[in-house]
Every structure is written in structure tokens, then in C-alpha cells.
């Protein structure tokens, strides 16, 4: 009887101990998981706070720099106005109005370009207010120039007036324009700003290196187009594109794309931000972390564009070919670090290798070389 009790104790004690250990391990596992989730939450909040601080700092710096540029332009207009009045009164020295107002126009264009490239972190209200100031400066400059310019004397002339030269309607309709910003700026400013490429469909569009090197390229409202950027642009902004292909050389700064549907992008850049887009395939070379927001069904693959002179373009753009973070994507709509975002994935299989020359040829044949070169 004594031996039976001992045997029973020997069986029950280890079983009880193992159950207690299992419970402790389960509790510890739950605590660790809870702490990890809390830490992930804090990390996301910290990153968001850092992002907000950077945006606030950028906005403050923009406000100061913009106000300073505005004051400089206002001073120049005022000085020219006063000098013109003295000259018309016979007191002042000779004044080259054409040169002075040409310089003022260049400064206003530079101010417009500064506003355009800053729209990524400005509110709609700020954009409208600043655009109103730029428009007011333009009007004031033109009014001052008209007031100071010598009036032509009225008289008849026997010379025939040559008819105005008109552009070929087709070329006029498809001429690419220069320097703009995001779609919200385009809408907010009542079409004051022109986009580099806008409102095109079923076209092959090629901008060569002499047109884009170091410049800010902006594209909007494209459907079923093949856009090729040859060279190293300064930055690239794309807004509202559907079923398009964008083939680009390395970009010195950022690619910002929004409202892209069923598009293919092949681009190298320092920073990628993709917003409000779906069913897009991105062949990417990026030296920082790529960012997507409000996106679905995004596929990522390494950049595979190749052409004569690409090494020089990478050097001119300041990008390292050895550093490519195409697989490191931050989805601002997905907070979990344990589970991958369902909004993007890495492209695999035969789709990674793609023959761009063949795609270009097929597209141009399909649309009868309706090209804007």
C-alpha cells in the first residue's frame, strides 16, 4: 500500500509541475506578444511624430523663404517704378526697362517653381494663398511695365502688316509644356500653372536628355500612353494616369505618383512616394525606403532599365547603383510589423525580366507611331 501511494505521487507531481510550467510559458508568451505589439505601436507613433515634425519644419522654412523672395520681388518692382517716374520727369538717368522687367519675370518664375516643388508638404489653403501672391506679383509687374513703357504715337503707315504665324494645329495641341506641380495645385490655381505633359492618350511620348537633365518633370491626366524620359531628371511627379508605361532614367531626388491605375513604372530615384494608386507594377531603384499610402495591389521588382550612358546618368543624379531598397516598402496604412502588408508584394518569375525595347516597339506599332518627340 505504501509503495502504491509513492508511485501515484511520482506520477502526479511531474504532471502538475509540467502543467504549471506550461501555464507560465503561455502567460509569458502572451506578455511578450503584448509588449511587442505595444512597442510596434509606439514605434509607428514615433515615426509619425517624426514625420509631422519634419513636415512642420519644412512648412516653416518654406514660409520664411517664400516671404523673403516675395519681399525681394516687391522691392525690385518698387525701385523700377520710382526710377521710371524720375526718368519720365527728366531727373533720372537712362533706364533699360526691358532688362529690368526681364529680370523680375525670371524671379517670379523662380518663385513659382519653388512653390510648385513644395506642394508635397503644403496644405491646399497654403497653396492657394501662395499662388494668389504669385499671381498678384505677376499682375503688378505687368501693370508697372505698361505704365512706364513709352506710348506709341498714333499715325497711319503705308506698310503692310504681316499676318500672324499660326502653329500646325496638331503640333500646337501636343506641345509639351514646362514645369508644374501636383494636380491639387493645378486645380486650385485655375490653370495658371502648366504641366510638362498633360491631357494625352494613346501616345508614345519621349523627352530627351537635353530637355530633362536636372529639371523637374510633371505629368498629369494620361491614358494609355508610353512615356520615356531619357537622361537624369531632377524630380518626377505623376498624377492621374491610367494604363500607362513610364520608363525613366535615374532621378536625382524624388518620384511622387498619385492616382495611378494599372500602370507600369521603371524608375531609379532617391525617394519614392506612391499614393492612392492600384494595380501598378514598379521596377524600382531607390536609395531610401519606398513609401506607399492608400494603395492596393502594388507589385515591386528591381530596376532593370539599361541603355548607353546609364552609368553617367546615375553619377550625375548622385545615386549609388550598389544600394537598392526596392524590397523595403513602408505602407502607411499597415501598422503591423509581424504580418506583411496585403497592399503590396514582390514580383516573381518571368515578369521580373522585361524587354523594354520590345515593349516600346509593340506600343508604337499598335498606335501607328503617334509620337511626340
TrEMBL record:
Q: What is its main location?
A: cytoplasm
- Protein keywords: Acetylation, Chaperone, Cytoplasm
Give yes or no: UniProt keyword Disulfide bond: no
The family annotation for this protein states: Belongs to the TBCC family.
What this protein is called in its record is: C-CAP/cofactor C-like domain-containing protein
InterPro entries attached to this UniProt entry: C-CAP_CF_C-like (IPR017901), CAP/MinC_C (IPR016098), CARP_motif (IPR006599), TBCC (IPR027684), TBCC_N (IPR031925), TBCC_N_sf (IPR038397), Tubulin-bd_cofactor_C_dom (IPR012945)
Q: Which is a GO BP term held by this UniProt record?
A: tubulin complex assembly
Location comes to: Cytoplasm
Q: Where is the C-CAP/cofactor C-like domain?
A: 169-334
Establish whether keyword Acetylation is in the entry.
yes
| Superkingdom of this protein's organism | Eukaryota
Cellular compartments per GO CC? cytoplasm
Q: Provide a Gene Ontology MF annotation, just one.
A: tubulin binding
Complex formation:
Supercomplex made of cofactors A to E. Cofactors A and D function by capturing and stabilizing tubulin in a quasi-native conformation. Cofactor E binds to the cofactor D-tubulin complex; interaction with cofactor C then causes the release of tubulin polypeptides that are committed to the native state.
